[in-house]
Hints:
Layout: H1 3-9, H2 15-23, E1 27-29, E2 32-33, E3 48-50, E4 53-54, E5 62-67, H3 89-92, E6 97-98, E7 107-113, H4 116-123, E8 131-138, H5 143-151, E9 165-170, E10 174-181, H6 188-195, E11 199-208, E12 211-212, E13 222-224, H7 227-236
Amino acid sequence: MRIDKLLANMNYGSRKEVKKLLKKGLITVNGTPIKDAKKHVNTDSDLIAVAGDEVKYIEHIYLMMNKPGDVISATEDVSHRTVLDLLEEDEAAFSPFPVGRLDKDTEGLLLLTNDGQLTHRLLSPNKHVPKTYFAIVKGRVTATDQQMFSQGVTLDDGYVTKPAELTILVSNERSEIELTITEGKYHQVKRMFEAVDKQVVYLKRIKMGSLCLDENLSLGEYRALNIEELEALEMDSPSH
Ligand code: URA
């Protein structure tokens, strides 16, 4: 794996920051300072050090992706491209999987990791990790909808949703809103609006727990979480 990718994946900084460390000669492989970010290293046999400290190779990878609306959030599919098809080989080698599902046409924040325990905690209904969506909705979204969402609405299968926070950004025939929900029922946001006779025409997840979508990521792009983001996510879903 390329040394800059390896260290970025291991939270030593962004690829840019790692390049700076390399330039300064702070990174050594088997005792020799390396300046070439493209250098390939073997984590089984090479001893890598940053400013003299040995790098302990980690098994977990945590990526934030800006999911485009034409791939599915699954690990494999016979007929559609999946979010894993967007990963480069070095990240795919860690065998990450998406944390939860977004509909094929939903864009935005998707966490990919191979950390099964964190995934389990983030998706556990008991932890109520909030997820915030931006949506464009056909129809005028009103204070009445806000009120109904705050009390819970009845979906087409009779399920009554938990209280959700609806923020109206633009209210007209094509409204713009943000909605925060603490559960993850199938097509939940779309079905909540159907429950108040409106239709979601565009949906994008912008936040999960305290993790915000990095607006610098174009659709289909991804990056490793930084250490602050990872620690905050761990706090969002404590293991006790
Ligand atoms: N709610 C939906 O309707 N779709 C998604 O992809 C996520 C939440």
